[in-house]
TrEMBL record:
InterPro entries: GH, GH_1_N_CS, Glyco_hydro_1, Glyco_hydro_1_AS, Glyco_hydro_1_beta-glucosidase. This is Beta-glucosidase. Gene3D superfamilies: Glycosidases. It comes from Undibacterium danionis. The keyword Hydrolase applies. The active site is at residue 354. PROSITE patterns: GLYCOSYL_HYDROL_F1_1, GLYCOSYL_HYDROL_F1_2. It catalyses: Hydrolysis of terminal, non-reducing beta-D-glucosyl residues with release of beta-D-glucose.
Length: 449
């Protein structure tokens, strides 16, 4: 029996295998079909913000090539596709009139998936706020949370019976801390106090959106997607342990506790200026909504050192092309820890909604031999299987990403895809990892011995 077959047999029947993308990273057609600008259009067209001075105007041209991309998903033999909606494509100003041409694009995409028996998993917000809302303060403006709830209600009303799931946000930690904390992402604000307030408004918008979508009584499961990591002290020193606990509180628990406990973690609150952190009466009750699923994105751990300079991990498996430590065992430890901490607090079934590796892929004729990515996938699949064996209720895994794409402030310099994209010709070429993943899923389904 092959190693691939042995690994595949560790997952329960009905486990969902899929791939994920996001709108701004692949769609292109930035100025077509009634779409208005988002904050990423503005940010990527600002000199010096993107490493290769590129933008998402064309990206993978998925807007025009969606049928081809759905065919690739089907040929991979996958069950599911996770994608996000460009808010400014369906509602250009983030409020007011709906853009029917934009809505029609997502209707066509969802129909194409259904024709191939691929379940559709929609994310409402993957960082691309309509610029019109940013002009009024963006996520620092509490009103944005209410506009988001109206948008969520409309998308659920139109598509909720055709979708397997709807996630409110993808990685609100990034929206707050990279968008408003250090300015690395759009809208490029550098204000840690603002980042805290933004995180609250994001969570408030999540709760309001869940409430709004529930009123539509649709089939789609409702949840949120959070990026998470373990926080490991570099040494056994009390200082490193305290710093690691703080890191976990300000990142993972900062979002999990309001959702599942109805309050922010005390350890994190103790270290912020609460006089500048505005939480209105009733906010926490709104955020504390029952969920049908929790999406977890995992790429690396936090390795916490209080030494100067900080001690670095040994990186036994090396680094990805993003410079991130490859640390698969952190995934099982994270999942088991989350299960133990929140299982009695309404923790719903979990999906691994993103996990993947950037590799400096090179074309070899018409092939891409991305052996490191295959090894990465195998190791992380093993850790998911380990967590399932330990009792964690994990229902599926979405690899990031289907396609090479616009990798935010890295532009087109980093490649995460199972499928190589030649950005000039828009040719799609399967990497060895795509071929491996197809074989793995076939073995999971028992079609191959």
């Amino acid at each position: 029996m092959s190693e691939q077959t042995t690994l595949a047999q560790q997952f329960p029947a009905g486990f969902v295998w899929g791939v994920a993308t996001s709108a701004y990273q692949i769609e292109g057609a930035a100025n077509e079909g009634g779409r208005a600008a988002s904050i990423w259009d503005t940010f990527s067209h600002t000199p010096g913000k993107i490493l290769d001075d590129s933008n998402g105007d064309v990206a993978c041209d998925h807007y025009h090539r969606y049928a081809e991309d759905v065919e690739h998903i089907a040929n991979l033999g996958l069950d599911a596709y996770r994608f996000s909606v460009s808010w400014s494509r369906v509602q250009p100003d983030g409020r007011g009139a709906w853009n029917e041409e934009g809505m029609a694009f997502y209707a066509r995409l969802i129909s194409a998936l259904a024709e191939k028996n691929i379940s559709a998993h929609m994310t409402l917000y993957h960082w691309d706020l309509p610029q019109a809302l940013q002009d009024d303060g963006g996520w620092l403006n509490r009103d944005t949370a209410y506009h988001f709830a109206q948008y969520a209600r409309e998308m659920a009303a139109r598509f909720g019976d055709q979708l397997a799931s709807i996630a409110t946000h993808n990685e609100p930690w990034c929206t707050a801390n990279l968008g408003y904390g250090n300015g690395q992402f759009a809208p490029g604000v550098k204000d840690e106090v603002a980042a805290l307030q933004v995180s609250h408004h994001l969570l408030l918008s999540h709760g309001l959106a869940i409430q709004a979508m529930r009123t539509q009584n649709k089939k789609a499961k409702l949840g949120i997607v959070l990026n998470q990591w373990t926080a490991d002290p570099a040494t056994d020193s009390a200082a490193d342990h305290a710093a690691a606990a703080w890191e976990y509180a300000r990142s993972v628990q900062w979002f999990m506790d309001p959702i599942f406990r109805g309050h922010y973690p005390a350890l994190a609150l103790a270290k912020i200026d609460q006089s500048r952190f505005i939480v209105l009466p009733g906010d926490m009750e709104v955020i504390h909504q029952a969920l049908d699923f929790l999406g977890i994105n995992y790429y690396f751990r936090a390795y916490v050192s209080t030494e100067t300079p900080p001690r670095q991990p040994e990186t036994k498996l090396g680094l990805t092309d993003m410079g991130w430590e490859i640390y698969p065992e952190g995934l099982s430890r994270l999942l088991i820890g989350i299960h133990q901490e929140y299982k009695d607090l309404g923790l719903p079934p979990i999906y691994i909604t993103e996990n993947g590796m950037a590799v400096a892929d090179q074309l070899d004729g018409e092939q891409i031999h991305d052996t490191p990515r295959i090894d990465y996938m195998q190791r992380h699949f093993q850790e998911v299987a380990k967590a399932i064996e330990a009792g964690v209720n994990i229902k599926g895994f979405f690899y990031w990403s289907l396609l090479d794409n616009f990798e935010w402030n890295s532009g087109y310099l980093r490649r995460f895809g199972l499928i190589y994209v030649d950005y000039v010709s828009q040719r799609r070429i399967w990497k060895d990892s795509a071929i491996w993943f197809k074989g793995f899923v076939q073995r999971f389904r028992g079609r191959v011995g």
